[in-house]
Amino acid sequence: MHRTLDARHERFALSHPFRISRGVKTVADVITVTVREEGATGRGEGVPYQRYGEDVASALAAVEEVREAVEAGANRHGLLSILPAGAARNAIDCALWDLEARRSKRDVANMIGAPPPRRMTSALTIVIDSPDAMESAARRFADAPLLKVKVDSKDPAAQIRAVRRGAPNAALIVDPNESWDKPLVEAMQPVLVEAAVALLEQPVPADADAWLEGFVSAVPICADEAVHLASDLPTVARRYQAVNVKLDKSGGLTAALELARAARASGLGLMTGCMVSSSLSIAPALHIARLSDFVDLDGPLWLREDRPGGVKNEDGILLPPEAGFWGTSCG
Question: How far is the C-alpha of 171 from the C-alpha of 199, rounded, in Å?
Fold first, then answer.
């Protein structure tokens, strides 16, 4: 066996600024890992996230730390013990899934005993702006079945009400990205009910959420930053009603599948999310999405130009990538 690994930084310009409570993004910075073995090539992508102490340089350095082991034949399960969860492990893990699919002539769906990805409802994101601008954005997406509303702590009631006016029929996920505190969560309960919000995602900082253990929310609360791995679930299950599985947090599809299945076994609701990324990040996440109550995989839709053959959007319905893009035995 002769295996080689290549890792590089790639940048994708966004078509519009992506504004959340933590700041504004205009470019998606990703690391792309390519693993080649005996004529087959597997690819994976990771998105380093500053919230978790990552950047492109640290993610590439993490890949270099395990290069020798991967090139010597380390598999996906071995990777779990030599590299912590994060963008670097995600990129390598997904590249190894893709490589195995192409070498074995079996699709990833077949490998995990699941049907191939199909078209599905996926949230379209309304980013933070003035209420008027957010209402206008919602009107453009009014036919979409699911919207995610990014809010902050300044006037979230006006932001949520504006989106509801613009899209009276869409289901809404409200995401403060940890910017609220306990008094604001309590004060916002009537507004969430008034706007018929389906899910409230990580309203408070993950390190300040212990009080949620005794809190009865008017709408289900979903853990995002508070949950990375299946080992987090015993605590998370006492504080939240659902979990958001992201491959960059879990460090790849292997660990994400374990988390998703454990969350279901614990009786928690399930959401699949993503960073702002290309379709190379989304293709493996579709295998978590098929298990989920809510899907939020619109990252590539923010790019000025995605990778060829990637996912497509039809009024809030996500179409899977073209055959051969990732995790399939052809192409």
Answer: 9
Q: Kindly report, residue by residue over 142-173, the tens digit of the pLDDT.
A: 999 999 999 999 999 999 999 999 999 999 99
Is 154 a catalytic site residue?
no
> 285 by DSSP, 3-state: which?
helix
**Which residue among the candidates 25, 105, 150, 312 is catalytic per the annotation?**
150
Torsion angle of C-alpha atoms 163, 12, 93, 294, degrees rounded to 10: 10
Cα distances from 284 to residues 206, 213, 279, 291, 327, in angstroms, run 26, 32, 9, 13, 7
Q: Any catalytic annotation for residue 246?
A: yes
The string of DSSP letters for 152-219 reads -SSSHHHHHHHHHHH-TTSEEEEE-TT---HHHHHHHHHHHHHTTEEEEE--S-GGG-GGGGG---SS
State the pLDDT at residue 255.
98
Give me the domains of the chain, ranges plus CATH numbers: 3-106 (3.30.390.10), 120-319 (3.20.20.120)
pLDDT score, position 22? 86
Q: Which of 154, 246, 249, 312 is catalytic?
A: 246
d(CA 295, CA 292): 7
Report in angstroms the alpha-carbon separations of 252 from 90, 115, 126, 175.
Answer: 4, 20, 27, 23
Whether the per-residue pLDDT at 331 is higher than 50: the answer is no
**pTM: predicted TM-score of the whole model, two decimal places:** 0.96
User: Distances in Å between the alpha carbon of 30 and those of 96, 247, 259, 279, 308?
Assistant: 17, 13, 23, 11, 16
Buried b / exposed e along 95-118 (16+ C-beta atoms within 10 A): bbbbbbbbeeeebbbbeeeeeebe
Predicted local distance difference test score (pLDDT) of residue 329: 74
